[in-house]
Amino acid sequence: MSIERADIAFEVNGAAISVNVPPLRRLSSVLRDELRLTGTKVGCDAGDCGACTVLVDGEPVCACLMSAASAAGAAITTVEGLANGKLSALQASFLEHGAAQCGICTPGLLVAATALLEKNPFPTEVETQDALGGVLCRCTGYRKIVAAVMDASRHVESLNRRMPQSGHAVGASPIRLDGLPKVTGGEKFGGDSFPADALAVLVVRSPHYHARFAFGDLDSWARARPGVAGVFTAADIPGKNCFGVIGPFADQPALAEGFARFRGEAVALVAGERETILDLDLSDFPVSWTELPHVLEPREAQADGVELVHQHRPANLLTSGFVERGDPDAALSGAVVTVSGAIDTSYVEHAYIEPEAGYAYMDGDTLVVVACTQAPYMDRDDTAKVLGLAVDKVRIVPTATGGGFGSKLDVSLQPLIGLVAMKTGRPAALAYTRNESMISTTKRHPAEMQATIGADADGYVTGMVFAGDFNTGAYASWGPTVANRVPVHASGPYATPNYRAEGRAIHTNGPISGAFRGFGVPQATIMQETLYDELAGKLGIDRLDFRLKNCLRNGSETVTGQKLDSGVGIAECLEALQPHWTRALADTELFNAGSSTKKRGVGVASCWYGCGNTSLPNPSTIKVGISSQGEIVLHQGAVDIGQGSNTVITQICADALGLPLEKFRLKSADTAITPDAGKTSASRQTFVTGKAAERAGRALREAILRFANVSERAAIALDGANLTIREGEATRRVELSTLQADADGLVFVAEETYDPPTLPLDAKGQGKPYAVYGYGAQIAELEVDLKLGTVKLIKITAAHDVGKAINPLLVEGQIEGGIAQGIGMALMEEYIPGRTENLHDYLIPTIGDVPSIETILIEVPDPEGPFGAKGLGEHVLIPTAPAILNAIRHAAGVLVTKVPATPSRIRAAIRDKEARQ
Amino acid sequence: MIRYAKPTTVDEALALLGEDSWRILAGGTDFYPAQGSKPFRDNVLEINGLAALRGIVETDSHWLVGARTTWTDLIRHPLPSAFNALKQAAREVGSVQIQNVASIAGNLCNASPAADGVPGLLVLDAEVELRSAQATRHLPLQEFILGNRRTALLPGELVTAIRIPKPAATGTSAFVKLGARRYLVISIAMVAARVVVENGVVSEAAIAVGSCSAVAKRLAGVEAALRAQPANHALAAAVQSAPMDELSPIGDVRGSAEYRQDAAREIVARAVLGTIDHSAGGKVAA
Q: What residue stretches are annotated with the 2Fe-2S ferredoxin-type domain (chain A) (predicted)?
């Protein structure tokens, strides 16, 4: 049925090439699969993300929308063609500005920006945004990209890596240690290294929210299609067809058995030769569906007589979390002022630009899975369980990960490609389509929340009651974590002596809700912070002053009864915002005096967030050694999904060890070679793995000092393959090559583990759930068009207490990126199953939607964290949405109670208000 | 085997169209997203080899825009200020990457209610040139796009050009787009307005709104209300009180029907003001 192949000739990066492909094959596929130029990324295959941008005769186009035949005779430039032996000024500028985080969108941005700079070497901010508006980035918040492009033509020197001197790595901002391949196109993400002989895999998925299904004659169907190697269903799964990130709640089949609980659930796999699979029509796949009644909303799911999503979970309740302290009812009835409200939020899609991708193969009797991930050891354990293998017979080799934000904590394709590799003995490769990624992987929980908060006549909060139902979708995933984290955090970083909060995770037939940067806390904070504005208003207290009055301080007790002795930096954050607040209020007043259709507003909100698992063990282990060649080999198991752990963990280890950063060579989080540093989640890597790295660095240093028989005051240095140890006048030189090396080639080695000290929560949620908290507060300034309900952001000012900024540039990058996701959540992101399963109906912020961001780093050291550091990855998006909603209310006089606050919803709220007046 | 052809002359293309049923591939920016990951099962006629169909020329009676002319081609081509709305719209069709390959005719043939290119052409009284091996016909744009994803294109026909009659290429136009983000966004509503002013008075007004009905519509009531009015900021008031019965917006993920109706009137007013005061018009997006 296919179209006849043709010889097509064109030029790529200056070289003439010819390919023999079907003429309608997408150019992106030709570049990646035929020419192995995998720097051109595929994020959506629909022109929505721009990751595949290449230059065709000098003009940027989406390679996914161009036929191979259309490229005939053209000159194509890909990211691989930008470097010319040494980095272009633009590539160097990207690295120095920290404009690449995960790096998946970087090639598209570099190519599009190259076209701009050819015509306009010194573009303005708007010209830069206009040129790059078609490339989505989910990590950076775009500000550093804009700066890197605008500065590129001023970049004359060769790349400045800003390598710190020995002992000064912590607090310095070297460029990311893993940065170079991200700007050359050399980085290998999940879909970039498929073996040429790998079988391609297609996943057959449920088109229905809830349905029974039965297969027809699969064998005959497969036999009738030459090139199809096999069809696999749940019946082929050799192990326990049930996985899940939290063992006791595990409930998800890798391939559904007999019925599907959500739209997009995998029911069968088809494996075959790549060309066969590309031309395979699944419309006659032998499966018959019987639709069953479904529920998509928690309210429906809890109605009497509703069919249960899981028979063993009554009332469709997965689990609930509860925290109670003091007597909240008495406190509220005795309060001088109380406010109550309700807020609903929507499903939010992670929308990393890299859809899930990887391949699997058998290495003897060991299954090797090479894929993008946030949690290699968890992948290993779940894959082994499903496939009936011992955990040491599964090896997970993480590729670079093109964004994760929580969703790549859960296994996705690992057991699927593993099954095909096991059954066929051939490598098996799969890259999810954008649609497949969106319909089958986890989302942020939609929340339905109510709360009441009361204060006394002096403006102190006396009590709060909060209840939230979180739509956890068809399977458990991280629902229990959300249910437990929310009640612990729903007070915000404020002293709340009387408190009751319940978070409930409710099953529906909607998409699976799991982990997404903040685990429910961003939703709960919208509820609390919007009520705080109302309270301040009723009390007649300035909104920022009200927060300062009530915020946690050293010595405060949290709502779980945890006494915070030191390291509480929320007051410092709010104080740092005060001059900006005063200035912003004055600017707003001035503007509004002269404007009627457009009104400006200012809002503020805070965050706190416990780093690491809630009252559960979550150890990290770091191994570091010195090779006989004089390299420091760091087994860096904290997966870097763009946030910078490859750099930050190494900086910490370098200073603990007392040797220069540039001597480090990193080993990846491959489960066969690197100890478990836990998952990249819960803002734990800088704190937990960082602490393990600090301990490992110190232990390695001690081993060296002991060997040299010197005291801890000695200084060590690496000079080629020699180690020099100096103490006072004495110098000792150790020729590393003369020492006995272990099997890894290491002559000195240390391995240390750190597990944060926490205590369980009792029945009333009292205890010490986290060893370390981070804090922050943000101001949003914006303009509302009262007639259209549109919002134009003017500026975000963000003050975050990170304890110690190990790498200030990376910290800024996290803050800007978190704010961009907060902007999306506040204003545009709403995943509706069946309707927004692509990146043009599901909107995330573009380069034109993130305003100027001013970052203020606050460093109140934490006694537990490495060098005083606290986590920040999730904190940074928590205050953004409530600050924006508060600013909208300040501007327009209306609170939008369903997030996102789209133009339609804002305008409806304004219309309602006008009707009431 | 299914067929694929990439002819180099229009006659050759029309001959092929006459002998078989084909999907047309031009810029590919709607073709590939619609295809997704499905295998190809239709014959495909790629018209990117038809050099004759690309470019803009001026005749005594018309501006002729070749069917393969891209949005970038249009942006870069010097044109009278009556085309300002179309040029502003061109900058909002997808991204620069899309504008560099997407054809103007493709935007019409795709017949999306949210096609950004349509209102700007409607206010220019654009006609569509349709050719088959047997005949050439011209249809007013309103008669070419029949509904959501439906056109009057007959089997064997190819859109070869868009024709703007010279009398309509007078005055100044402006485009306003309403979307939920700054770039690469499907319009909640968009408006093109073209106004001819003589001696300080509106002598002619053409207003078209997209995304508020299955096919973008000209607003006869608003146009009538604007005619003979002084060309000043009071035109906004004339828009606010004019009938706008042509629109029949639906509610969807981008906004409610009520919102669209309400917002459309507001951006019509802004687009009209944009034609007389450049600081008032231009793009609106969140």
A: 6-82
b/e sequence A625-638, b meaning 16+ C-beta within 10 Å: bbbbebbbbbbbbb
In which band, very low, low, confident or very high, does the pLDDT at A389 lie, cut at 50, 70 and 90?
very high
The reply to whether residue A61 touches residue B101, judged by beta carbons under 8 angstroms, is yes
Give me the interface pTM, i.e. the ipTM. 0.96
Cβ-contact A451, A531 below 8 angstroms:
yes
Q: For residue B273, give the H/E element and its range.
A: helix B257-276
pLDDT tens digit sequence for B115-136: 999 999 999 999 999 999 999 9
Check CB contact under 8 Å for A843 and B181: yes
Chain-chain contact of A135 with B3 (C-beta, under 8 angstroms) = no
- For the range A698-706, what are the long-range contacts, defined as Cβ-Cβ under 8 Å and sequence gap of 24 or more? A698/A656, A698/A657, A699/A750, A699/A751, A699/A752, A700/A624, A700/A625, A700/A626, A700/A657, A700/A748, A700/A749, A700/A750, A701/A656, A701/A657, A701/A658, A702/A750, A703/A748, A703/A749, A703/A750, A704/A626, A704/A748
CATH number at residue B215: 3.30.390.50
Indicate yes or no: CB of B284 within 8 angstroms of CB of A835.
no
Residue pair A240/A384 in contact by the 8 Å Cβ criterion: no
Chain B interface test: which of A54, A55, A65 (most B C-beta within 10 Å): A65
Q: Confirm or reject contact between A450 and chain B (CB < 8 A).
A: no
With contact defined as beta carbons under 8 Å apart, do A861 and A804 qualify?
Answer: yes
d(C-alpha A483, C-alpha B22), whole Å? 55
Instruction: Give yes or no for residue B89 having a pLDDT over 60.
Output: yes
* Best CA proximity match to A532, nearest among A521, A519, A520, A545: A545
Contact A772, A611 (CB under 8 A): yes
pLDDT (0 to 100) of residue B285: 43
Assign A113 to helix, strand or coil: helix
Amino acid sitting at position B225: A
Establish if A119 touches chain B: CB-CB under 8 angstroms: no
Residues B47-62: tens digit of each pLDDT? 999 999 999 999 999 9
Assigned domain for B211 exists: yes
Radius of gyration of chain A (CA): 27
Min Cα separation B137/chain A (Å): 29
